[in-house]
Amino acid sequence: MQIASPLDTRLSKTQVRAIADSLHNDECGIAAMLGQMKQTDNPQVAYNAAWVLCHLSKDDKKIYLLPHYKELADLATSAGLCFRRGLILAILADLPTDEPNGKLLDFCLTHLAVPTENNSTRSVMIKLAAKMCKPYPELCEELMLCLDMIPQDSCPSVAAAKRNALKKIQNK
Fold this sequence. Notes:
This protein has helices at residues 4-7, 13-22, 27-38, 43-54, 58-65, 69-76, 85-93, 102-111, 119-133, 137-148, 156-170. The protein is mostly helical. The longest helix has 15 residues, at 119-133. The radius of gyration is 16 Å and the shape is globular. The N and C termini lie far apart (45 Å).
């Protein structure tokens, strides 16, 4: 399957979904897409590959991306990421984990209230932090302190993510 060729142009959401659908249960294709995302010499290819991986079914993510969780978390927290961080964080948010990744959780807690971060990325950070903190009361308290630092007049997506996170961690 020739994956790289359509990824070097701007894709529509319909095209991304079509590519994601074509990768259903395709271990080699998903592995190739993951490889395209990690390559950094063409930011458009990396962005499109991340966007496609974000649209995989939850089952495909669980089966084929869960083994790469630590690697994806490292990529999401790297300073030199060449595409929108929210895409990779959204992939991580869909993966089931028993133990929170400390580096990823620290990154989310540190950056979720930073106004210079992209609002959609901040929203996903809040969602991901709530998911990781929920089983641990002491982490829930730390998350609530971080959420308190978000201004009341935040954009709608961040405000909604904050409300949902508070509901999630308070309704154990």
